[in-house]
C-alpha cells in the first residue's frame, strides 16, 4: 500500500469534495481517497504508486487544480 | 408570469448553484430559476405566485438557507 498526499486548490464545499473524491477514486489502483476541505489536502491510498500526471488529470477533470509540491 | 427574487446563503461554487436550481426548479409551477453565485440572488419565474414555505423547503433540501426578507 502506498499513501500519497496531494494539495488541491479551489474546493469550497462538500460537493467539491465529492467531485474530487469521485474522479481520483476512479483511477486504477486507488483504494481510498480522503479529502480535507479546510486544508485542501487529498490523501490517496493505492496498491501501487500512482502516476502523478494521472492524479493531476483526475483533479483537473473534477474542475480543480493540483498544487505543485 | 410572476418573478420573485430570493436571497440564499451558503452557496460557494457551481455545484451549489446546480443543487439550488434543481430543487427550486422542481417546484410545481416554476418555469425558470436563475442563480447568481456571487450575490446569492435566486430569481424564480413561475406561472402563479409560489408558496414561500415551499421555496424555503426546496432551498433547505438543497442544503442552503433562505435569508428572510
From TrEMBL, chains A, B:
Alphabetical keyword list: Metal-binding
Pfam families: HMA (PF00403)
GO biological process: copper ion transport
Gene3D superfamilies xrefs: 3.30.70.100
Positions of the HMA domain: 2-67
SUPFAM superfamilies, alphabetized: HMA, heavy metal-associated domain
Keyword Protein biosynthesis: no
GO molecular function, one term: copper ion binding
Family matches, as CDD domains: HMA
TM regions (residue ranges): none
Protein name listed in UniProt: Copper ion binding protein
Protein source organism: Micromonospora yangpuensis
Taxonomic path: Bacteria, Bacillati, Actinomycetota, Actinomycetes, Micromonosporales
Amino acid at each position: 500500500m502506498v499513501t500519497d498526499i496531494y494539495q488541491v486548490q479551489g474546493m469550497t464545499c462538500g460537493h467539491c469534495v465529492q467531485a474530487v473524491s469521485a474522479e481520483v477514486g476512479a483511477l486504477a489502483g486507488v483504494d481510498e481517497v480522503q479529502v480535507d476541505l479546510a486544508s485542501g489536502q487529498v490523501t490517496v491510498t493505492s496498491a501501487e504508486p500512482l502516476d502523478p500526471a494521472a492524479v493531476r488529470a483526475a483533479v483537473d477533470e473534477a474542475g480543480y487544480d493540483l498544487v505543485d509540491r
